[in-house]
Amino acid sequence: IQLTQSPSSLSASVGDRVTITCRASQGISSSLAWYQQKPGKAPKLLIYAASSLQSGVPSRFSGSGSGTDFTLTISSLQPEDFATYYCQQLNSYPRTFGQGTKVEIK
Amino acid sequence: EVQVLESGGGLVQPGGSLRLSCAASGFTFSSYAMTWVRQAPGKGLEWVSGISGSGGSTYYADSVKGRFTISRDNSKNTLYLQMNSLRAEDTAVYYCAKDNVVVVATQYYYYYMDVWGKGTTVTVSS
Question: Which residues contact B39 (CB under 8 A, 6 or more apart)?
């Protein structure tokens, strides 16, 4: 299963609403997770089961979608949110990742 | 505290072998599947291999199938990745991650990786 994220990168300002999409090449139900990665650090789980917020993750992060189309939304971008975001499907093996979306400061 | 810690990375020549380890603590290791993920320099994340809690089921990416072997020792709370016939394109940071699952309506199983190590660097070069 291939995952295509869009955009590959974006520039945004603090306080902006940011939306990242992830499209699967075939239906994956709600078996999708979102991760945040900062340079030199390990990925951090944000969202699982497409829309469930991981414990400790700020509520400005939300996920939606099922089947083939998914969205990660940051309602009000904060300075610590500038990072690269990856979606991952866990419906079947191999458990593929999207190519990533880099969120940069405008 | 729930954590995993990778070790065993280093510099190896093409065609060589290396074994990575991942020491787990803070949770009942045998109850959870585990995963290896890698990231080549400047590139995205690539899922490499996974193993069930008992070790009875293993899974591999096509890029490593036949060369890498995942295993675990539940008595030592340790996950392994044996890497043989290494190639330059295997150069990456290798992360170990703990799998988790949520069950919805008693029939839908949604998996995710909730605990990640800091990674260990593997460089394949002559």
Answer: B45, B46, B92, B93, B95, B119
**Across A86-100, average pLDDT:** 97
A86 has a chain B CB within 8 A of its CB: yes
- For residues A89 and A66, the answer to whether their CB atoms sit within 8 Å is no
* CB-CB contact of B110 with A49 (8 Å): yes
Write the DSSP symbol of residue B24. Answer: E
SS3 A71: strand
Looking at residue B30, its pLDDT comes to: 97
Q: How many other β-carbons are positioned within 10 Å of the β-carbon of residue B108?
A: 12
Give the rounded percent of residues in chain A with a pLDDT score beyond 90: 98
Report the C-alpha gap between B60 and A106 in whole angstroms: 40
Judge whether residue B21 has pLDDT over 90: yes
Task: State the best of B2, B36, B111 to mutate against chain A, taking most chain A CBs within 10 Å.
Answer: B111
